[in-house]
Amino acid sequence: MIVMKFGGTSVANAEAIKRTIEIVRSRLDKKPIVVVSALAKVTDALYNISYAAENCNLKEAADIIEKLRIRHFELANELLGDSASLKETLATLKAEFDELQKLVEAVTVLGELTPRIKARIISKGELLSSIVIGQALTESGIATRWLDARRFIITNNEYLQAEPIIPEIEHRTPAEIDSAFSSSCDAVITQGFVGATPEGETTVLGRGGSDYSASLIGMAVSANAIEIWTDVDGVKSADPRRVANTRSISRISFEEAAEMAHFGAKVLHPLTIEPAVMKDIPVFVLNSLNPENSGTEIVNYDAVEDGVKSISFKEGIVLMNIFSPRMINISGFLMKVFDIFAKNKVSVDLISTSEANISLTIDDASSLEAVCSALSEIAEVRVFNDKSQLSIIGKNVVKQRSLINWAVTSLKNTNVYMISQAASSDNISFVIDRNRLDEVLQEFHTYLFEYKSL
Ligand code: ADP
Ligand code: ASP
Ligand code: MG
């Protein structure tokens, strides 16, 4: 079996879906489990619907729902033509839209949007896309079984950033998938991003979570491969939307890919690698717009060479300086500080400490106020907004002395607020002002990938 995950751009419209169907057809001998994202931009629209509902703006929510309804109905018409299945597919879509409308009305009446209801709203994108694409696969001659991911992607009840319960997923997924394939189908289709609590309440895995779904399913069925189909020729030396002349990387290790994703590269969800590593399953990142391209293979650490592979960045992060003379010679101070972050569920990226100071970065500032107010009871806190973090990633980059020397010299006209190079041997990170990011990114990329290899 193989898992094939198609992201939003790979299923954006009828043309993209037809391409995707042909890619699935080319893998039928491998028993494909197709995992789909919502059509491009649909999850954003569902977030906007939930904001509008929360603000009791029923008209705006209804307008967006109507646009989504038209888009999915037109897509079904385009893909299914006048086939016998069109009517039934439209009825299934209609039922999903009716439920969405009811959820939104309930939110506006109550004036309150709970995470539980929000998860039900934003999970609709994948449910809708999988209904249309599943039927289009079948109509194209690939007998396809539609499975509801909520039957086997079991998570805790952090509804919007749900954590998978691995033993439950491992227990339930093979039974569901095996029974589908034993009913003489060619392929299975299910939703990325979507899961459910053990009690059956809908949850989602966090933005970009369809990659993670694919990897969890791959792990649970011990798949032969996990293919992440997206809109670029695999993992690249930097984000091609921000940097000119990027190159595709043919092989990268699980560790390097995880580090890249964790430090900002959107091409993979940061948790995608973990389940695949557990079962030693190769992961490929491929381009649905250019299926002939061999993309990137993600392999074991020992199988890749040392050296810089990629530059990642995070933009608009927050730098915090926490100062306390009490820190000097007193044990347990760091614990108190990090306990505050943990209680507020804020994850810290980079940290550096000196005698009486802790500098750290966070990229989700939504609980910043609560964190600062708790910290201010034990320390002086200063917050600096609009910073960026840029990370050079590759096996053992930290050991390349010339690299760090070059980077520091080339940053002589840029304020550098933090350098982190010891935590992992595969990553050197710099915190700089946001308005310097683009220039520095391009300069680093040109030097590291075009002029010379260090
Ligand atoms: P999908 O909808 O298929 O999941 P995403 O938009 O989530 O696609 O991820 C693909 C995008 O990731 C690319 O279009 C590219 O702009 C971006 N990206 C960021 N960093 C990288 C990188 N190092 N290599 C490739 N793509 C990257
Ligand atoms: N549709 C979800 C999102 O846009 C999940 C995904 O595409 O991976 O975040
Ligand atoms: Mg993605």
State the main characteristics:
8-stranded mixed β-sheet, 6-stranded antiparallel β-sheet, 14 helices, binds adenosine-5'-diphosphate, binds aspartic acid, binds magnesium ion
Which parts are unreliable, with pLDDT below 50 for 5 consecutive residues or more?
A: none
Q: Name the shape in a single word.
A: globular
Number of helical elements: 14
Task: Provide mean pLDDT, rounded.
Answer: 94
Give the neighbour order of strands across the main sheet: 3-4-2-1-7-9-10-8
In percent terms, what proportion of residues is strand? 15-25%
Counting DSSP E segments of at least 2 residues, the number of strands comes to: 16
If you compute it from the alpha carbons, what radius of gyration comes out, rounded to the nearest whole angstrom?
Answer: 23 Å
Helix content: 40-55%
Order of helices and strands: EHEHHHHHEHEEEHEEHHEEEHEEHEHEEH
**What is the oligomeric state here?**
single chain
Bound molecules: adenosine-5'-diphosphate, aspartic acid, magnesium ion
Distance between the termini: 41 Å
Structural class by sheet pairing and helices:
alpha/beta
Biggest sheet architecture: 8 strands, mixed
What does this structure look like?
The protein is of the alpha/beta class. It is 41% helix and 22% strand. The chain contains 14 helices and 16 strands. The protein has helices at 14-25, 42-54, 58-80, 85-110, 115-122, 124-139, 166-182, 210-220, 254-262, 273-278, 333-343, 368-375, 401-410, 437-451, and strands at 2-6, 32-36, 144-146, 187-191, 194-196, 202-204, 225-230, 251-253, 283-287, 296-299, 307-323, 348-353, 357-362, 380-395, 416-420, 427-433. The strands form three sheets. It has an eight-stranded mixed sheet with strand order 3-4-2-1-7-9-10-8, sandwiched between helices. The chain has a six-stranded antiparallel sheet with strand order 12-13-11-14-16-15. Strand 3 (144-146), helix 7 (166-182) and strand 4 form a beta-alpha-beta unit. Helix 2 runs parallel beside helix 4, helix 3 packs antiparallel against helix 4 (85-110) and helix 3 (58-80) runs parallel beside helix 6. The chain is globular and about 75 Å long. 46% of the residues are buried. The model has no long low-confidence stretch (mean pLDDT 94). Bound molecules: adenosine-5'-diphosphate, aspartic acid and magnesium ion. Residues 7-8, 37-38, 43, 125, 192-193, 207-210 line the site of aspartic acid (ASP).
